[in-house]
Write a structure and sequence with these properties.
By secondary structure, the chain is α/β, with parallel strands linked by helices. About 30% of the residues lie in helices and about 30% in strands. The strands form three sheets. A seven-stranded mixed sheet has the order 10-9-8-11-12-13-14, sandwiched between helices. The chain has a five-stranded parallel sheet with strand order 1-4-5-6-7, sandwiched between helices. Strands 2-3 form a two-stranded antiparallel ribbon. A hairpin with a 2-residue loop joins strand 9 and strand 10. Helix 4 packs parallel to helix 5. The longest helix is centred in the first third of the chain and has 17 residues, at about 65-80. The model has no long low-confidence stretch (mean pLDDT about 95).
Length: about 325
């Protein structure tokens, strides 16, 4: 495979991340004309030969989710019809991942539907980061490389050299992620017990763990409307934490998220660039870490048929 030419293409979802990845690898982004007609239809033209090439399409499916998904699908279809040897969809943020099961009768499993469509459009492999539900890997009948973002966040806090740290999971479902993070930075662990009376609404019930005099770090895979994070941060301060940091892999930051974070007790919010932040979301309290070196190294290893898991051993 390494004898075949490696090419990277991208849509309009996160071109800055695609450029960082290309710079890390030392190649230029492939020429593709991606535009939208007046009626909303997407037009894509591949402006260079990809025959026999090992092609990677960098396109997180963040907001506008449906437009970015269609760009990804049409790009891969164009590359398949242009005789690319292998097409790998690099989707750092996988949209619809929170619709991965039937919570009520007559609900769709949209994460599975999207997996089917990605495969049908021409993907031979998928690279993703911190899927909201790891079981989504099983929705695909093609190889999936699932990359963790926790080591990137952990390295940032190791370099900050904070004292008396307690890592806090904002819900029961994120305990394994929080435990992994806590072990990497040598911290204790606490858990917030919450309930969701409805989507994007959370209520803090209990905090399990010792917070008195601690520096608390909340960690989650996604910050969406920031209700959970800001409510949990206030609860931690009430239970004796000296200060609270928050971090996540995917900064969705929809609706009132920015306003909530700015007015919260959270000292700093650390996120990655799996999702690009618009100017109005680039506030002083938010620190962005790049996942480009991780994705770039994974792409090189896939291209050279080397182990990707050894990146984390």
């Amino acid at each position: 495979m390494a004898t075949r030419e490696l090419k990277i293409f991208c849509g309009n979802s996160n071109p800055d991340l695609a450029q960082e990845i290309s710079d890390y690898i030392g190649i230029t982004i492939g020429e593709a004309n991606v535009k939208t007609f007046q009626d909303g239809e997407i037009s894509i033209g591949i402006e260079e030969s990809v025959r026999g090439s090992d092609v990677f399409v960098v396109q997180p499916t963040c907001a506008p989710t449906n437009d970015n998904i269609m760009e990804l699908l049409i790009l891969m279809d164009a590359l398949r019809r242009a005789s690319a040897y292998r097409i790998t969809a690099v989707v750092p943020y996988y949209g619809y991942a929170r619709q991965e099961r039937k919570a009520r009768a007559r609900e769709p499993i949209t994460a599975k539907l999207l997996a089917n469509i990605i495969t049908t459009s021409g993907a031979n492999r998928l690279v993703a980061m911190d899927l909201h539900a790891p079981a989504i890997q099983g929705f695909f009948d093609i190889p999936v490389d699932h990359l963790p973002g926790v080591p990137i966040l952990a390295q940032y806090f190791i370099e900050k050299k904070l004292k008396d740290i307690c890592v806090v999971s904002p819900d029961i479902g994120g305990v394994s992620r929080a435990r992994n993070f806590a072990e990497r930075i040598g911290a204790s662990l606490a858990i917030v017990d919450k309930r969701r009376p409805e989507p994007n609404v959370s209520e803090i019930m209990h905090v399990i763990g010792e917070l008195e005099g601690k520096t608390a770090i909340l960690i989650d895979d996604i910050i969406d409307t920031a209700g959970t994070m800001t409510h949990a941060a206030s609860a931690l301060i009430e239970r004796g934490a000296n200060e609270v940091y928050a971090c996540c892999i995917h900064p969705v930051l929809s609706g009132p998220a920015i306003e909530r974070l700015e007015s919260s007790v959270i000292k700093e919010v650390i996120v990655t660039n799996t999702i690009p932040l618009s100017k109005e979301k680039q506030i002083k309290k938010i620190k962005v870490l790049s996942v480009a070196p991780l994705l770039g190294e994974a792409i090189v290893r896939i291209h050279e048929d080397l182990s990707v898991s050894k990146l984390f051993s």
